[in-house]
Amino acid sequence: MRKIGAGIEWGRSMPASYLFCGLASQPLFPASALESCLKFFENPPMSNELIQPILKDEALLADIAAARLNENELHLWWLGQSGFLVQWRNKHLLIDPYLSESLTKKYAMTDKPHTRMTECPIHPSRLDFIDVVTSSHNHTDHLDHETLWPLMQANPALTMIIPEANRAFVADRLNSDLAWPLGVNDGTSVSAKGFTFTGLAAAHEQLEQDENGNFRCLGYLISFDHWTIFHPGDAIPYDGMVENLLRYANGRTIDLALMPINGRLTERRVTGNFWGREAATLAKAIGAQIVIPMHYEMFTFNTETPEEFARSCQELEQPYKVLRCGERFARRK
Questions:
Q1: 3.10.20.30, 3.20.80.10, 3.40.50.960, 3.60.15.10: which CATH number matches 33-43+54-331?
Q2: pLDDT band at residue 299 using 50, 70 and 90 as cut-offs
C-alpha cells in the first residue's frame, strides 16, 4: 500500500469524470472508466498548495440553502476528515466536525507535526442553522473546542450527542454544563430534533470502557424518517461488530455508511482505523446502499488515497461514492 506525504492532492485537480466511482442499479461511475480512475489514484498530481474544497465559504452556504428547496431528498456534504453535514427537511445534523487549525498549531513544534492537506471549507461560526452536533470520542479531530465554541455561540439551541463515558471530559474541554450533552452507550438510543442516535461500541484500536462499563469510543446509527446512516467514528473491525450493528438497526436498511479508510501503521504513532478494503467489506456485510470514505486528506502523516477502497468496492460489487471536501451527495427514496 502506497503512503502519501506532503503536497499530494489527488482530489483538487481531478477531472469531472473522476469525481466518483461506484456500482448500483444505475451505476454511479462507468465501469469502463475504472482503470483510468485507479491510474489517477496511483499517480496523483503533485503540488505544494492545499487541496481546495469543491465548495467553500459563500459557495458552500449557497449550495446548502439551495438544497433546502428539495425537501424530498437527503443531502450530505463532506467537510473533511470525519465531518459531515446532513440536511433533511430543513433539519441539520453536523457529525464530528473538525473546522479549525487547532491540531496543526498544537503539534507545530513537535516531532509529530499535523500538516494540513485540505483547506478548511468554512468557519464554524457561519453554520448558524445547526440543530444537532455529535462527538464520537475525545480525540480533537472529533471533539474540537475551536470548532465547537463558535458553533455553540452561533446556535444557542444546539443539542450535542456524546458517549456517556465522556461526559466529564466534554464538559471540561468545552467549559459547558455537565448536563448539557445527551449521552449514549453501546446499544442505547437518544432522540433530538427528529434524529435518533443509537450507539455502537467502537474499537480505536481497543474497546475502551470507563469504570461503569460505558464505552469511550462509539459509532452512531442515525435514523430519521425513512433514512438510516452509520458513522463509526474512529474504529477498526472487531468480532461481533457487524452482528451488533444489524441487531441495533432492527431491520432498517442502512442507506449510507460513512467509513474511515486511513488504516493503521505503527510508525504514525497514533491509533488507527479501518483500511480501505476493511471499510468496503464491512459496508457489504451490513448491506449499506452506498458507502462513502472519510478520514483521509487531512494530515500528511496520517492519510491514504481512496485507491484500495475503490478497488475493493468494485470487487465486492458494493455501491460507493468518493466525495471531495465540500461536495454534496443527494439521494431520494
A1: 3.60.15.10
A2: confident
